[in-house]
């Protein structure tokens, strides 16, 4: 699942989806408010261009538009970081990962700018 949410909704969204582990950039000092495993990753894991390229290679596509994810920069960056982490910990390309599912949340506040991204 690929999802972008405004920063003020990250905690509530994490509570709803209850991830087993959360990856975050080493430059962050997160307070997720959950008792869940969290793993720091290098900031460059979350770099948008390399994440998009890695995801396109994984899914053997020219763009992520077919998944409805083309404009979701923070979510794509998070998905790329997760894929890179999984490839490193699972020793190679993950052939069973074949696509993305995008979940759209309607903003509940005036802030519609996505600030956080969650990949489950």
Provide the descriptors you would attach to this structure in a database record.
120 residues, two-stranded antiparallel ribbon, two-stranded parallel sheet, 3 helices
Task: Describe this entry's structure for a reader.
With 120 residues, this protein is an alpha+beta fold. The protein is 31% helix and 15% strand. It has one domain (2-119): Nucleotidyltransferase, domain 5. It has helices at residues 10-17, 48-59, 73-89, and strands at 2-5, 21-25, 37-41, 116-119. The chain has a two-stranded antiparallel ribbon. Strands 2-3 form a two-stranded parallel sheet. α2 (48-59) crosses α3. The longest helix is centred in the C-terminal third of the chain and has 17 residues, at 73-89. The radius of gyration is 14 Å and the shape is globular.
Secondary structure topology:
Layout: E1 2-5, H1 10-17, E2 21-25, E3 37-41, H2 48-59, H3 73-89, E4 116-119
Parallel strand pairs: 2-3
Antiparallel strand pairs: 1-4
